[in-house]
């Protein structure tokens, strides 16, 4: 018995050709390109490319959608002749097949997520990853020559791994299978090779989810060359892929998309929505929000920028947020505030950190005035002590490094002693902090870091700073050229920041003339700090911020050596 490559049924090998010519019908879950190019054509004789993609909910491409029934209506988007040839072949092989996933022109596209609707169909729509799939990209070359090697595509979410695999599906002459669970696809591939002599490319999304024992099962198939495996993963393959499997695959790394690249993707999506709206409005009532003729229906440039920055290089997040913003608005124009709103309200941007940033922000805004009033007003002394810990770093900072341990000790004292005696500890600490020298250098520098990160926080870590615990990572250039400081006598000059970063802002704050060491009041005038234990009064925490010049204090070589 063999598995029929058209309908997947188990069929006696002696009648497989007869079965395929007369009896079998494709299963419902076959997406683009089921095997049956023609009822009367045996697969052995078919000159056409055959692609099988197990259907997934989000599998939908607008170009194919509008032209799934006639190969003539499809305009090849490929400038390159070879791409064009493969593209046309793929269309002709898939055009005369029933396809549950492909929508007819009357079907509403709004139910399909925007990200899926605007998924690129070919290299010309694929943004970024120039080294791999740009004009002279070497992976593109391999794909166009139909020499796709087994590979692992490694990259963060939403940068186009699945999209690229599907472009390969369109351009390859091999069978193409996509699945994300354990199936018999490998056996089927073997059967198909026996029957048709064609290799199969198997795409495994999230390959890291297969455990090592399961990955072992793929080995003989990849080894024998009957199957080309394409795995996609967001995890480091060195740790998540069997070394034996890894050594049989090439690893391609896809980089996080830059803000500009995400913006290009968004702009293309907006154009696509416009086109779809025009089509929709011609045939039926449209409930989408952009239209060609409506000047109000625009996404502001700074809204686009914000969207691109906040999605942190993940095109899917950006497209989903855009879609939500468009659907949320009854008014026309999408502004930066709308986008911020989406990210605040929707769970799609819950990158472990939302709450974390809120907390930091709240801490930084806290004020220490009116200690007495707070305590007499019944404030929790531990709350006050926590504020003092913040004060110690935010205002005293590097000018007096004993402030922070004292503030922490005060907190513990409050825990041990409790009210009312812990007032004494609080008063002690408050007085010390008030009299201490002040520096807001680290606080300000960190403020600048945050500002910069808001604008451009998706730069990759420079290769020389990355750890390279595995061979693969070394091969990819991780840690290459790193100068290990203890090996050098003098100061070490090397790059510690992403090269794309606008570093001027950082360097400025570390210039001697920008250092804002300050003295407490006592050095200029008399200090008047009164902490009256029985009758708490407002405490004046104001102090003059005069410049102190260069200090003898040490600072890290990491920033200054970059100059
Ligand atoms: N490089 C790109 N060029 C154009 N559009 C892209 C690109 N990358 C992603 N997109 C858009 O984002 C959507 C999601 O991309 P895709 O599914 O390819 O990401 P992925 O890298 O496989 O992510 P994951 O690891 O989360 O599965 C696509 O449907 C497409 O609309």
Descriptive account of the structure:
Helix 12 crosses helix 13 (about 300-310) and helix 12 (about 260-285) crosses helix 14. Helices cover about 40% and strands about 5% of the residues. The protein has helices spanning about 15-25, 60-65, 80-95, 115, 130-135, 140-145, 160-170, 185-195, 210-225, 235-240, 245, 260-285, 300-310, 315-330, 335-345, 355-365, 370-375, 380-395, 405-415, 420-435, 440-455, 470-475, 505-510, 555-560; strands at about 1-5, 10, 150-155, 175-180, 200-205, 225-235, 250-255, 440, 515-520. Strands 4-5-6-3-7 form a five-stranded parallel β-sheet, sandwiched between helices. It has 24 helices and nine strands. The protein is elongated, with a radius of gyration of 31 Å. It folds into three domains: about 25-255, Rossmann fold; about 260-350, Helicase, Ruva Protein, domain 3 (Orthogonal Bundle); about 350-460 and about 500-563, Up-down Bundle (Zinc Finger, Delta Prime, domain 3), CATH 1.20.272. By secondary structure, it is mostly helical. Bound molecules: adenosine-5'-triphosphate. Adenosine-5'-triphosphate binds near residues 120, 159 and 319.
């Amino acid at each position: 018995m063999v598995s029929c490559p058209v309908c997947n049924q188990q069929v006696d090998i002696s009648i497989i050709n007869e079965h395929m010519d007369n009896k079998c019908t494709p299963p419902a879950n076959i997406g683009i390109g089921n095997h049956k190019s023609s009822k009367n054509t045996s697969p052995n004789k078919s000159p056409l490319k055959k692609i099988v993609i197990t259907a997934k909910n989000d599998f939908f491409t607008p170009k194919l959608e509008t032209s799934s029934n006639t190969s003539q209506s499809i305009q090849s988007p490929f400038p390159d002749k070879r791409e064009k040839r493969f593209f046309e072949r793929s269309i002709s092989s898939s055009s005369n097949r029933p396809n549950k996933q492909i929508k007819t022109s009357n079907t509403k596209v709004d139910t399909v997520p925007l990200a899926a609707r605007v998924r690129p169909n070919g290299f010309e729509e694929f943004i970024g990853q120039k080294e791999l799939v740009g004009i002279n990209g070497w992976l593109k070359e391999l794909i166009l020559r139909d020499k796709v090697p087994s590979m692992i595509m490694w990259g963060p979410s939403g940068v186009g791994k699945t999209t690229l695999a599907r472009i390969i599906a369109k351009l390859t002459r091999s069978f193409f299978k996509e699945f994300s669970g354990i199936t018999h696809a490998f056996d089927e591939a073997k059967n198909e090779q026996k029957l048709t002599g064609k290799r199969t490319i198997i795409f495994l999304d999230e390959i890291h989810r297969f455990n090592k024992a399961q990955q072992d099962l793929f080995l003989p198939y990849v080894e024998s060359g009957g199957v080309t495996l394409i795995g996609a993963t967001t995890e480091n393959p060195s740790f998540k892929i069997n070394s034996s499997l890894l050594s049989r695959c090439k690893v391609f790394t896809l980089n996080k998309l830059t803000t500009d690249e995400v913006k290009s993707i968004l702009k293309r999506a907006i154009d696509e929505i416009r086109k779809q709206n025009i089509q929709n409005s011609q045939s039926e009532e449209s409930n989408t929000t952009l239209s060609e003729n409506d000047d109000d229906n625009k996404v502001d440039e700074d809204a686009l920028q914000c969207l691109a920055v906040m999605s942190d290089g993940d095109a899917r997040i950006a497209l989903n947020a855009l879609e939500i913003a468009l659907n949320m608005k009854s008014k026309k124009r999408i502004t930066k505030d709308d986008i911020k709103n989406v990210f605040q309200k929707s769970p799609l941007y819950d990158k472990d950190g939302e709450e974390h940033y809120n907390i930091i922000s709240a801490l930084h805004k806290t004020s220490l005035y009116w200690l007495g009033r707070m305590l007499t007003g019944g404030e929790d002394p531990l709350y006050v002590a926590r504020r003092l810990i913040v004060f110690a770093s935010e205002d005293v900072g590097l000018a007096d490094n004993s402030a922070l341990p004292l503030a922490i000790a005060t907190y513990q004292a409050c825990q041990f002693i409790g009210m009312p005696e812990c007032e004494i500890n609080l008063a002690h600490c408050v007085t010390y902090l008030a009299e201490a020298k002040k520096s807001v250098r680290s606080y300000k520098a960190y403020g600048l870091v945050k500002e910069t990160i808001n604008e451009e926080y998706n730069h990759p870590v420079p290769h020389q700073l990355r750890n390279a615990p595995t061979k693969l990572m070394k091969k990819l250039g991780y840690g290459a050229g790193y100068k290990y400081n203890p090996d050098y006598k003098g100061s070490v000059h090397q790059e510690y920041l992403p090269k794309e970063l606008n570093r001027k802002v950082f360097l400025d704050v570390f210039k001697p003339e920008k250092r804002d060491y300050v003295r407490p009041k006592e050095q200029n005038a008399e200090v008047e700090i009164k902490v009256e234990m029985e009758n708490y009064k407002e405490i004046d925490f104001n102090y003059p911020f005069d410049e102190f010049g260069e200090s003898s204090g040490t600072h890290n070589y990491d920033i200054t050596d970059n100059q």
